[in-house]
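Practice record 12: protein with adenosine-5'-triphosphate.
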Amino acid sequence: MKSNSLAAVVRGVVPLLVTIGRSMPVLTAVWLLLPLLLGALLVPLFASQKQLIDLFVSGAGAGVGSWSERAREALTPLALMLGAALLRVIVTSAQNVTDSHFRGKASMLVQSLVQQSAVRAPLEKMDDPVYYDRLQRARAVAGEDLFGVLQNAFSALRLATELLGLLAVASAAGPGIALLLAAVFAFSFTIRLEADMVKRRLNRDLTRSGRESDYLRETIVRPETIRDMRIAGSIPYLTDKFAGGMLRSLVLRGNANRREIRRGIASSAAQIAGLFGALVWMASRMADGFMTAGTIIVVFQAMRGAYGISSRAAFPVGKMYIQSAKIVDLIEFLREAKQETGDPSRPALATAGKDDGEGGAETPVIRAATAAIGRTGRIDLERVSYKYAGAASETLRDIRLTLHPGETVALVGDNGAGKSTLVKLLLGLYRPTGGRILWDGVDYRELEPEELRGRVSALFQDFVRYETTLRDNVTFGRLEAGANDESLRRALSAASIDSPERLAGGLDGRVGQLTEGGRSMSGGEWQRLAIARAAFRESQLLVLDEPTAALDPQRESELYRSFRELAKGRTVLFVSHRLGWARFADRIVVLQAGAIAEEGTHDALMAAGGEYASMFRAQAEWYRG
Ligand SMILES: Nc1ncnc2c1ncn2[C@@H]1O[C@H](COP(=O)(O)OP(=O)(O)OP(=O)(O)O)[C@@H](O)[C@H]1O
């Protein structure tokens, strides 16, 4: 067993319990204390048993003569024994109820912590495969493994407190007996745990290699395989391979079983020797009049109880060893996320310039900036550049661009030119790695992220399909304001959905296949819903990244007709490869390999005969051809 495994269990489980305890201190305290109480109750239970045995078996009740007198004398220990036994039953039931409640709530809490960490993380993080992978692992551990980890931690705690109670009982015969019991327990437990771990690892390895055996077992007897193998003369090779694999796993399992049996024998021998030694010693003390029969019997019981624990505890502790690495991973993920994003109530937009570890607390600068935002809605990009983490070169270089209030700008360019990246910077989802973006002269870094979020809306290429009601799909665009049916219908109509009844049986009709009776939708219908969602936000800047990619020509022209409605009173930036759309923009910006190649109206760019003109002619030619 690796020496750092126990450290990993402690490093994982303790901070996990601290994290949970901070959010639900009472429930955690009760969850931890009930097993302690159960262990402590063993002491009066055994003490009263000892008293009763001494009273009736050895007649040790000094000065007590008749049976009736002894019976009277026995009332107190009897009441104590019954009381302790009854209390243990009650505490056990309370503990079972608390345990399942605690585990359910704790699992919910940790899952929500992981979710909060993910939604608050700067969006650039999602582009980092290492982070994304860790997030997925943390999500899986919080969702699937945590329940089991807490169950094992609870079993281990319960057995540990019971062991402490039994040690306290054994110490009635003297500290030497308690020490002997502790030493035999430690020996038995360690070797049983080791045997358990060896079997677990073997099972894990055999599950992997077993997949190949399963595959061969299935494949070898298929007619097409037999035909193929006969022609190739490979029958003996595959059957030998299968038999060899099976034999190997049999040998390994046999070795592990024999090892477990040897460990079991060693453990039992140590336990019997311990028990025998203790009995001999106690009997000799009894002969000297220093020990009663009651003490010997209860200590004997305590020792047997502790030995039982040594084999029962191997299972939950062994499982925790296996799970500890995942829990350490989860805890580190949560810790790092907290350090990076601070206060959970803070936003998901990139909080550039607020990496002060304070989670972006509101400062006078930010307040003043927020008050200034939105007076006119002019957006300036000043020498903006952007480089993805781990990328060899910059995706955007030296972008200088102004979006005037109410203007419609088309952003065009080849695949990979950097259009979507520019969109994310404009929306405040990414922070520029060079230069700055200003809204009415105020640097994005000084703006309150919620304020900025309130002024922008977007439709992304990879728009989300919310498998809920039609109404939710639209109102998710602006949850804070109450939505009446009329405004919802207006937004739907701007996305060329004139009849929600026809689409999904009404505003409250369900869409998607998640629930029974949900209307399954085509890609284009989902896209129109996403457009309606973006339209529903009363934003100053509307960004549409390929808004028509999934639409058929009929829907596309319908959307074009409602586009003016969509653009009314706001600045619109849209990205499209269909240059027919760009023709109607106030201005066209052509991006080429991360830099602005040209800029102007359709007519001006066509007259200039540059990149845009050649792209437009190529597309027009293609349609004509
Ligand atoms: N997460 C990322 N990490 C590294 N490079 C990236 C990442 N995302 C995009 N890129 C690279 O940045 C460049 C610009 O990508 P972007 O998606 O902004 O281009 P685009 O103009 O929108 O392309 P398209 O027209 O195909 O949608 C591409 O070369 C792309 O490979």
